[in-house]
Amino acid sequence: MPRRFLCLACAITLGFISAGAQAFGESAIPIVVELFTSEGCSSCPPADALLRTLDATQPVPGVRLIVLSEHVDYWDDLGWKDTFSSHEFTVRQDVYANVYAWLAHTLRKW
Prior knowledge:
alpha+beta; disordered N terminus
């Protein structure tokens, strides 16, 4: 999934959640943002920086972002082991990928 589309989808989702929370006069709604990353991944530092920015700025009114940086282990085979990596995070990412692939396939049928 292209990064721009993913960011747009997140922004739209957070916007709807924020609007809903404000409409009902509720306090900040906690939203979990998970980033699957690795120290051995050359394209991960910009995503890591974005996650830190989201955490520091909390840019969505009515929402409290809870950010998680989850280090996967499939980059470890390239010669440098990420000391924070866990196979459990890799499995979690695979589960998400399978669920979203099924959901995308199902929604395309509509």
